[in-house]
Amino acid sequence: MGKYSYKKADTSGFNRQHIKDYNQNLGDIGNDMLDLSNGLSRHKTAEHAHTSDQIDHGGFSLRTYIDSLYNRIRNLILNADGTNVKEVVDARVDADGNVEPLLKERLDKEYYKLLRKIQRNVNVDDYGADPTGATDSTDAFVRALGNGRVRLNLSAGEYVVKGAKIPSWTYLIGQGKGVTTLKLHEDTPASEWVLTNADHAGGNRNIYVEGMTLDWNPDRQGGVNATGGINSSCLTFAKVKFGWIKDVEAVNPGLHGFDITAPTYDITTENYTADGSYYVWLDNCVASGYGDDGITTHYSEYIFISNSHCMNPSGKAHAAGAANSNGIEIDDGSKNVWVDSCYTSGNIRGVEVKAHDEWPASQNIHVTNHISYRDVRSYDARHIGHHSATDPESASAYHVTFANCTSIEPVFNSLYADISPRALVISAYKHVQISNFTAIGDPQYDYKANPMVAFQFKSRYINVNGIKMRGFKTASHDIRAFGGAQGTDYVQISGVTISESSPIGVAFGGGVYNASLIGATLIGDNGEMGVYSPNNKVELAAINVAGYASAANLGGRSYSVVPTNFKGGFKGATTSGSPLDPTSAIIAATGSNVAKGPRNFMGGVSGGSSTEGSRQAILAANNSHTKGDGPARTILSSQSVINDDGYTVVGGYGSGEASTGNIKWKIDSMNGNIQGVGRVESVSDFKDVAEYFESLDGQKIDSGLMVTLEGDKIRKAQPGDSVDGVISETAGVVLGGAGFYWNDRFLRNEFGGMIYETITENGRELTVPKENPNYDPTLEYIPRDERVEWHIVGLIGQIHVRIDDTVRVGDRVTAGTDGIATKTEDNGGFKVMRIKTAYDSEKGYGVAVIFMR
User: How confident is the model at residue 741 (pLDDT cuts 50, 70, 90)?
Assistant: First the structure.
């Protein structure tokens, strides 16, 4: 618009001043309109015409959208597992040596630097490109891109090219996915890309690609396939530093939809990421029909993949039935990769973190907020060639995080016929963190008795905190930690909820000795067992199980309730103290108590009590100690006592220093001896001392009958027999019971004393009774008190005896007919203390209490 002109009014008939003011007003209006016109023209071409708050982006202001993306990346950085803090700090230092507060801010700074470097803002159509797809636009892209420093705009439509090579400092922007399409020309070689950076060998930097669909056109020339290496993908960044790929769709690539890589996959040098890509962000990208993987990374660092979807590969880069085509694959030599809020479906593996055997594994990989739908294996971390017992340990497979990830209905897929469904698999990797993981199966689908979550193949240091599973009715296990020579170990699982799923809830294999299952709710539906382990090494606590035939099967034994099992030295309800061995415990104690040896237990102790040796115990004692390296010493309810004698239980009391001299009683488990410095007192109404004797005819003799010895056996006493005892039910002390084992189990000398021998136990010499060679421990032994031929015969004290009608209080009695007591006439026999039951002619006896001595 040119300068405004206006016509001055005629002065005839008007006041001169009025006319002057009127003309001045017209001039001012014209100048204002000119200023407005010039301002609008500048606004159209201004680089910073609007603030981000003024620009609408899908219902949100651009400022809101940028803030959302900024906070997401910031959160990803802050929620790394902390193992690569130095690398993350270093990544915030730019080439000029400036330190940015966050890595995301450094990316932003590089983005703004890209905008400042741009010298041309052009449309590829102005260089002869054809958005109708009727003619080849390759040359137009070459001319338009030039040496970079360009913002190249693409129109809506389809451009046919033989691949476009993007130089540094380039902003390539279309009108959106499905609106702007770049498609490979019919004559394009199979090795070409739709888009790649211009200089793979030397590298490029600061490249931004946005808003388009990339079609590799595999049907050209009658059908072409990937040629291998880093070729044949829709978009490849090889040795690119600072790259942005936003709102881009990759369709039917021969190899990958998006490949962030080094110039070659065959890197074996120690500094294997030196030629890789750095600081690349893929956001809101889509890949489908890929011959290998949707999104992949190789030998690259600080890669961000967000809000992207990879689905339904063709698998054509592989042999039929063996297509390892994955949604998102973090492959050989990648480091520091974040995958956030993405979605995969129909792949062999939804997200795979891996490496081939000859190359280093990906490290420090974090997958968050991901959804896998009907991928065969939703999440898989592995280092090929480092799985079997004879394979070398992986030196690089470390640090993987899966957080807030969901697996929905993993299924078989004919693209890879020999691989079975899993929600999650960890192989060879160490230091793996799994948090808030969800796996949902189809109860009607045939999982062919495969486990759904598998920890296997020499994986180590796996921490699972929060996992929810349901619906895998035809699987074998919901969670299985495989054992054996190539099994896993150091697996810690907590916060498990499983409902109506596999026959076995959580299983640990043989040789998995360092594992735990803490806090689990397992609700089966006619399941086999909630928890399984062939040993008792797994730590278990707070596990609720229902709906299984057995709650647990541990070490070959079934349990109706899962037992609590903790390893390691234990200290509870204790102000201080030290269980120095992992098999010892101190409970309910005060003071500096020390359990030094294995399998030691201290409870209710104080005063710096201590144990030495193995299998020691101190209970309810103060300032008491077991001494020596021998086994099996116990102190009970004592003060200042030392027990240095193995296989004994002692108690006592003393003041001052602890001593063996303060022992007041002792039980000898090895020899069966009981010693005490005080009296042995019966507080019941039992009043006689007795011994066991066997009846002569092997028949039972009734209580209260007098008996006489015939040899070493007894029979009912008859008139004229000496009375040697009475069958008693009131004996306070009974000898000769032989209640634990055969009376002649141990050899005796000619005086009836035990014969001893010296044995070696755990390197120590012990003196023990010598066993009779005729002793057969396989034969069942019945104690004497359960056999009718053995009787308790009262010998001394107050004893109940059967009497005839001749007996009165104060009389003396001896044996009458068949052991019934009768009055003596010669003042001999035993004195009658009282009559308990008067004589009854129908019973044929009364009952008196006599005194025997």
Answer: confident
Over the chain, what is the mean pLDDT?
A: 91
Q: Kind of pairing, strands 764-769 and 756-761?
A: antiparallel
User: Which positions are catalytic?
Assistant: 691
Amino acid at 486: Q
Count of alpha carbons within 13 Å of 148, Cβ hemisphere only? 18
Q: Are residues 208 and 243 in the same domain?
A: yes
pLDDT band for 77, please (50, 70, 90 cuts): very low
DSSP helix/strand/coil, 231: coil
Q: Quick check: is 88 in a domain?
A: yes
How high is the pLDDT of residue 827? 84
Token pair of 136, please?
């080849």
CB 401 within 8 A of CB 365: yes
* In 486-612, beta strands by DSSP E: 489-499, 504-508, 515-533, 539-554, 557-559, 570-574, 578-579, 585-589, 594-595, 601-606, 610-611
Do residues 585 and 635 share a domain? yes
Residues near 166 by Cβ (< 8 Å), separated by ≥ 6? Answer: 145, 148, 172, 195, 196, 197, 198, 204, 207, 209
**Spatial separation of the C-alpha atoms in residues 490 and 463, rounded to whole Å:** 8
Which domain does 280 fall in, by range?
Answer: 118-317
CA 164 to chain CA centroid, nearest Å: 48
Q: Based on the structure, what is the number of domains in the chain?
A: 6
Beta-sheet pairing, 570-574 with 539-554: unpaired
Whether residues 158 and 216 share a domain: the answer is yes
| Integer Cα distance of 491 and 497 in angstroms | 17
| 628 and 757 belong to one structural domain | no
Which residues have C-beta within 8 Å of that of residue 787, sequence separation ≥ 6?
none
Number of H-type helices and E-type strands within the chain: 5, 62
Q: Cβ distance 451 to 480 under 8 Å?
A: yes
With both helix axes pointing from N to C terminus, report the angle between 62-78 and 103-117 in degrees, rounded to the nearest 10.
140
DSSP 8-state code for residue 754: B
CA dist 317 and 205 (Å) reads: 29
Query: For residue 504, is it within any domain?
Result: no
CA angle 31, 35, 36 (to 5 degrees): 115
How far apart, in whole angstroms, are the C-alpha atoms of residue 364 and residue 358?
19
* Distant-in-sequence, close-in-space partners of 847: CB < 8 Å, separation ≥ 6: 704, 800, 801, 802, 803, 835, 836, 837
List, in sequence order, every residue forming a beta bridge with 309; answer none if it has no partner: 286, 343
Instruction: Say if residues 460 and 489 touch (Cβ distance below 8 Å).
Output: yes
Q: How confident is the model at residue 659 (pLDDT cuts 50, 70, 90)?
A: very high
Examine the pLDDT at 174 and tell me if it is beyond 80: yes
828 and 815 share one domain: yes
> Dihedrals φ, ψ of 415, to 5°?
-60, -30
pLDDT in tens, 772-800: 999 999 999 999 999 999 999 999 999 99
**577 close to 591: Cβ distance less than 8 angstroms:** yes
- Using CA atoms, how far apart are residues 830 and 809, in angstroms rounded to an integer? 11
Pairing, β 812-815 against β 830-840? antiparallel
Other CB atoms within a 10 A radius of the CB of residue 43 amount to: 10
What residues contact 324, with CB distance under 8 A and at least 6 apart? Answer: 292, 318, 348, 349, 416
- CA-atom Rg of the chain in angstroms: 46
Q: Which two tokens stand for residue 363?
A: 């490290």
- Contact present, 832 and 809 (Cβ < 8 Å): yes
CB-count exposure of residue 66 (10 Å: 0-12, 13-18, 19+): middle
User: Is the same domain home to 25 and 74?
Assistant: no
Among candidate residues 676, 704, 725, the one where a domain is terminated: 676
Taking only the tens place, the pLDDT of each residue in 820-837 is: 999 998 889 999 999 999
Provide the CA 648 distance to its chain's centre, in angstroms.
43
Residue 212's DSSP bridge partners are: 248
- For the chain, give the number of residues: 853
123 and 241 inside one domain:
yes
